[in-house]
């Protein structure tokens, strides 16, 4: 740095005032930018929620309302029980049925993934056995084979196993996951060796150690992972689209997009909007209510 | 890192691994093998017999102008989604990192779109930009712009890009914010004392320190734009109008599921696998480096 002349008290005060002004401007800028950001993220939802409270003619005419109408209860009842009147929108299913299917699928995927990756990570970290590295690599490599790149052959396997149109077919192929296994492995490696030593000295076997020491230590990781995996399961699209043609198993995400069809202006858009709100609600609530765990789960699965 | 104290046993560890390996074998390796095998075969018109055709499926796919178009669409779509989602997220994260009132409320309001399914995000944007019932779609038409994403390919592409980027911002925001918060305050204060203005401080100090996060996110965003946006395209445009929003993934789906062209679909799957493997290798080589910092 260049040598500067000593700063006088006057100059000092002037500089301090300038800094304060700059900080105030910077804060104002932050509020404006974040406010705009929030607006961009909230506005689509606002329009949809508002639209779901109007009658079908208002929306169909294109008089897009910005404030709530009086048809909200009727629209949600219609979406919940029947999926629309069936006059204008074809293919509507009762939302309760689709929500139930989505909930069952999401919970089974989340629990299934956690159970099988916990067990396999435990085996890889706490045992020494032949083929340990091979097993680890076999699991790791699945990262490189997302469903999307092996659509047709996976579909054929499902047909051969008779898993088309079953909840098992919807869930089981999605519960193998390298990321959850890697997360648990990383966490298990931080468990001090002394714990294992102590457990061994007390005569505890590996299963006892898993149940009484490893599981309790993993609780926060399991909770964080559950939040992420529940959303992952709930938001599945391509897989249910392929596997399910039986409408009793339709999930809400796929079912609601089917209601749109070709996007005709004559659709029963108010009921479709109500269904969209119902489809978004559970995962959004999970994120908002469990924000801390959600952020933890997200940043740690990607390490 | 290797544990020193571990359990012995030959059967138990395999029993613990069994569920995962079984599912991986049946639903990952078996179909992936089938895809590779199928990419060298061709089925006759009636689906009765299959014959070995070598690399013919591949050369046909790569020579197909529709495939080149889909590759071009994918490149445009993915780079636009990744760039805009990263830029917006970085800008918002820098603002949210300042010590301001209500910072946490802002964070929650920006994070929640992560929970919205890609297909639902598409529907929300459809509600806004539908030419007849959408607020902005009607507004654009009112201004004399001929807006109909169901007829105009460029408009359709723009809409799927915006919907896909909109959904991805929250994810990037979380990671950029975590990255910003891990930069030691002392470094920033030192730069401030040295007389660096905020903008200069950002580009010379903060931005380089965020580069690892940014690079990691770039790969994640590309993977997202490649594979996780199927729902957005399917729900919003169905690959159309014409084939103007058909990406590589979407084409595998169309050729395999709708046109039942197994050989071509299998060859396309194999090409995509190569792309995923390349992206994963890049990602992990980078993570290795980060660990050694």
Could you characterize the architecture of this molecule?
Chain A has 303 residues and is mostly helical. In chain A, 70% of the residues lie in helices and 0% in strands. Chain A contains 15 helices and no strands. The model of chain A has no long low-confidence stretch (mean pLDDT 84). Chain B has 293 residues and is mostly helical. Chain B has helices spanning 12-38, 56-63, 65-96, 103-111, 118-129, 135-142, 153-181, 185-193, 198-228, 230-236, 248-258, 262-292, and strands at 41-43, 50-52. In chain B, helix 7 packs across helix 9 and helix 11 (248-258) packs antiparallel against helix 12 (262-292). The radius of gyration of chain B is 24 Å and the shape is globular. The relative contact order of chain B is 0.13. The model of chain B has no long low-confidence stretch (mean pLDDT 84). Chains A and B meet through helix 1, helix 4, helix 5, helix 6 and helix 9 of A and helix 1, helix 3, helix 4, helix 5 and helix 7 of B.
Give average pLDDT of chain A, whole number: 84
SSE pattern of chain A, N- to C-terminal: HHHHHHHHHHHHHHH
Structural class of chain A: mainly alpha
**Relative strand content of chain B:** under 5%
Number of strands of chain B: 2
Q: Overall 3D geometry of chain B?
A: globular
- Tell me the β content of chain A: under 5%
- Computed over alpha carbons, the radius of gyration of chain B is 24 Å
Order of helices and strands of chain B: HEEHHHHHHHHHHH
- As residue ranges, the low-confidence spans of chain B are none
Write a short abstract of this structure.
The complex is a heterodimer of chains A (303) and B (293). With 303 residues, chain A is mainly α.
Walk me through the topology.
The complex is a heterodimer of chains A (303) and B (293).
Chain A: H1 9-51, H2 56-61, H3 72-81, H4 95-126, H5 132-140, H6 151-160, H7 167-171, H8 178-189, H9 193-201, H10 206-217, H11 219-234, H12 238-243, H13 252-260, H14 269-289, H15 291-301
Helix pairs in contact in A: 1-14, 3-14, 4-8, 4-11, 11-15, 13-14
Chain B: H1 12-38, E1 41-43, E2 50-52, H2 56-63, H3 65-96, H4 103-111, H5 118-129, H6 135-142, H7 153-181, H8 185-193, H9 198-228, H10 230-236, H11 248-258, H12 262-292
Antiparallel strand pairs in B: 1-2
Helix pairs in contact in B: 1-12, 2-12, 3-7, 3-9, 5-7, 5-10, 7-9, 8-9, 9-12, 11-12
């Amino acid at each position: 740095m260049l040598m500067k002349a000593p700063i006088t008290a006057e100059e000092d005060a002037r500089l301090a005032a300038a800094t304060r002004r700059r900080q105030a401007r910077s804060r104002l800028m932050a509020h404006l930018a974040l406010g705009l950001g929030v607006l961009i993220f909230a506005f689509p939802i606002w329009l949809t929620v508002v639209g779901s409270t109007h009658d079908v003619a208002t929306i169909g005419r294109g008089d897009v309302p910005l404030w709530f109408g009086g048809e909200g209860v009727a629209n949600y009842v219609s979406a919940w029980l029947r999926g629309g009147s069936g006059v204008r929108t074809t293919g509507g299913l009762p939302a309760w049925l689709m929500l139930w299917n989505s909930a069952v699928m999401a919970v089974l995927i989340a629990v299934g993934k956690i159970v099988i990756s916990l067990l396999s990570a435990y085996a890889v970290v706490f045992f020494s056995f032949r083929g340990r590295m091979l097993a680890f690599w076999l699991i790791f490599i699945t990262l490189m084979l997302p469903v999307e790149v092996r659509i047709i052959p996976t579909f054929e396997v499902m047909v051969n196993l008779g898993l088309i149109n079953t909840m098992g077919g919807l869930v089981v192929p999605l519960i193998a996951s390298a990321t959850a296994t890697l997360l648990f492995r990383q966490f298990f490696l931080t468990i001090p060796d002394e714990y294992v030593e102590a457990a061994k000295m007390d005569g505890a076997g590996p299963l006892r150690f898993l149940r009484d020491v490893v599981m309790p230590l993993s609780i926060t990781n399991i909770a964080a992972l559950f939040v992420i995996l529940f959303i992952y399961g709930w938001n599945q699209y391509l897989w249910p689209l392929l596997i399910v043609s039986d409408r009793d198993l339709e999930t809400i995400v796929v079912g609601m997009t089917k209601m749109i069809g070709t996007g005709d202006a004559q659709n029963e858009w108010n009921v479709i909007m109500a269904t969209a709100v119902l489809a978004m609600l559970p995962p959004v609530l999970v994120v908002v209510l469990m924000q801390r765990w959600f952020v933890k789960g997200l940043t740690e699965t990607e390490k | 890192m290797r544990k020193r104290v571990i359990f012995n046993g030959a059967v138990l560890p395999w029993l613990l691994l069994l569920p995962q390996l079984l599912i991986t074998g049946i639903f990952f390796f078996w179909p992936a093998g089938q895809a590779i095998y199928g990419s060298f075969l061709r089925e006759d018109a009636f689906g009765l017999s299959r014959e070995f055709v070598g690399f013919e499926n591949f050369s046909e796919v790569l020579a197909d102008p529709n495939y080149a178009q889909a590759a071009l669409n994918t490149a445009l779509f993915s780079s636009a989604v990744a760039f805009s989602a990263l830029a917006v997220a970085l800008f918002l994260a820098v603002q949210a990192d300042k010590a301001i009132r209500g910072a946490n409320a802002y964070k929650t309001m920006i994070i929640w779109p992560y929970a919205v399914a890609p297909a639902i995000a598409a529907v929300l944007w459809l509600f806004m930009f539908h030419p007849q019932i959408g607020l902005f779609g009607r507004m654009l038409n009112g201004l004399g712009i001929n807006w109909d994403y169901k007829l105009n390919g460029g408009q359709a592409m723009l809409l799927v890009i915006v919907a896909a980027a909109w959904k991805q911002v929250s994810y990037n925001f979380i990671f950029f914010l975590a990255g910003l918060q891990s930069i030691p305050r002392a470094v920033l204060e030192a730069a401030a004392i040295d007389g660096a203005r905020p903008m200069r401080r950002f580009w010379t100090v903060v931005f380089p320190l965020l580069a690892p996060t940014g690079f990691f996110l770039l790969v994640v965003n590309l993977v997202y734009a490649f594979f996780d946006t199927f729902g957005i395209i399917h729900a919003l445009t169905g690959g159309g109008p014409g084939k103007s929003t058909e990406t590589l993934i979407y084409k595998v789906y169309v050729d395999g599921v709708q046109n039942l062209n197994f050989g071509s679909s299998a060859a396309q799957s194999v090409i995509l696998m190569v792309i995923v493997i390349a992206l994963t290798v890049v990602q992990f080589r980078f993570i290795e480096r980060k660990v050694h910092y």
